[in-house]
Amino acid sequence: MKRKIAVSIASVALCLGGLVVAQAGATTRTVGASGGSLTFTATVRNATTCAWSSRPTITGFAKTVKCKTGTVARSARFTANTWTTAKSYEVTLIVRGKTTTIDRWKVNQAGETPPTKTTTTTTTTVPPTTTTTASSMFYISLGDSYAAGSEDAGGYTTKVVTDVAPTHTLILRNFACGGATTTSMMSAIGCSGVLASPDGVAYPTTTQLAAAISFIDAHPGQIGLITITIGGNDLGGTADNASTIATNIANISAQLRAAAGTSVPIIGLTYFDVDLADWLSGPSGVAIAKESVTAVQQVINPDWKTAYASSNVAFVDVDAASGAYTPLTQLVNYSTYGEIPYAVAQVCILTNMCSQNDVHPTDAGYTLIAQQIVLAYLQLVS
Questions:
Q1: Superfamily of domain 22-109, CATH level 4
Q2: What span, in angstroms and rounded, lies between the C-alpha atoms of 144 and 361?
Q3: Alpha helix locations (H) across 126-206?
Q4: Which among 104, 263, 302, 304 is least buried, having the fewest CB atoms inside 10 angstroms?
């Protein structure tokens, strides 16, 4: 997805909860497939409470305790991972006092035993000659580089498959194309970069949307989930065309819903508001950031939500999940940039915008998107 320039709408003005004042870099830990215990330790100063949490939830780990100056520690027990795919956890410590700090640890757990039911797959052309077992379903990803996984092979899609693996077997087929727009999805033939993700499907003679619909038609009753991230490349630096993009989104959603049927979960997503990073460039950038929040929160995302809803497509507001709507008056002391709004700090953590001028998510950003998809998916299939 190309960088979205700041919007300008004269008429229009993440989140872990609590004020973050210092953001520590993530430390990576590992645990074997058989599970085991890890202890997380941090040094705190002038603290009042220390709140431990984890994503996904580690049973019995979340706890808030009183603390002062000194060392705090908490142990987490990881259960055995009986799947061949690895698991990833994020452990967080929020320390509140005169100031508030946050420490993060990433825990990677190896995979072990494959599931008892297997699948046979082919990913060459559309439609592939893939078959599934009774317990497995296809997960179709559509959209641009966010969905294709520009900076991290597979992006959020592979994380979705891993996160739902304990209860649902999803076989990813990724049709997303870097640089795609709502128009090109319906009209551009082929995509040279679609195979950038491990589970990408080539469609050299048709459009992204037509290829996905052909796959759906070829696999009746075997589609378990469809996600769409599209529209960011259409914006062109203004929210004035948000309604036009919404019309295209409604068209795309209607075609997918007609092909998939009424019961297949379809989820539409938004993007991280990377224009918040302009705050770091001075007074003019502050104005851009403020205008962007207003446009995204009051114009773009509401229009797109309505467009998806017209075909009973669930809507995941990535901006809301990231804390982008937190008032810009809520300041934090970010270790790299000093005192900045919490929403800006979150964009620096969840995307590469602040450090590399790159709109694509970091691994933490892709993880957050995947978690929001999984939550929505499990609600839809419950």
A1: Immunoglobulins (2.60.40.10)
A2: 13
A3: 145-148, 155-164, 182-187
A4: 263
- b/e per residue, 1-34, with b = 16+ CB within 10 A? bbebebbebeeeebbbeebbbebeebeebebebe
CATH superfamily, domain 136-325+353-381, is SGNH hydrolase (3.40.50.1110)
Backbone angles phi, psi at 364, to 5 degrees: -65, -40
Are 22-109 and 136-325+353-381 in the same CATH fold?
A: no
Give the rounded distance of the alpha carbon of 339 from its chain centre: 26
Nearest residue to 176 (alpha-carbon basis) of 149, 215, 136: 149
Q: For residues 272 and 318, what is the distance between their CA atoms, to the nearest angstrom?
A: 6
Rounded Cα distance, 132 and 124, in Å? 16
Angle, alpha carbons 192-377-249 (nearest 5°): 50
Rounded Cα distance between 11 and 291, Å, is 10
Q: Where are the domains of the chain?
A: 22-109, 136-325+353-381
Q: Is 315 exposed, middle or buried (0-12, 13-18, 19+ CB in 10 A)?
A: middle
**Tokens representing 35?**
């599970």
Helices (H), 261-356: 283-295, 301-309, 318-322, 342-350, 353-356
Mean pLDDT per block of 10 residues along the chain (382 residues) reads 43 32 63 84 88 81 87 86 70 81 83 45 40 72 88 76 89 92 95 70 94 96 96 82 91 96 96 95 94 93 95 96 94 90 94 92 92 94 86
- Integer-rounded Cα Rg, in Å, for the chain is 21
Contact by Cβ (8 Å): 111, 163: no
Q: Report the residue count for the chain.
A: 382
In this prediction the pTM is 0.68
Q: What is the C-alpha to C-alpha distance for residues 325 and 140, in angstroms, rounded to an integer?
A: 30
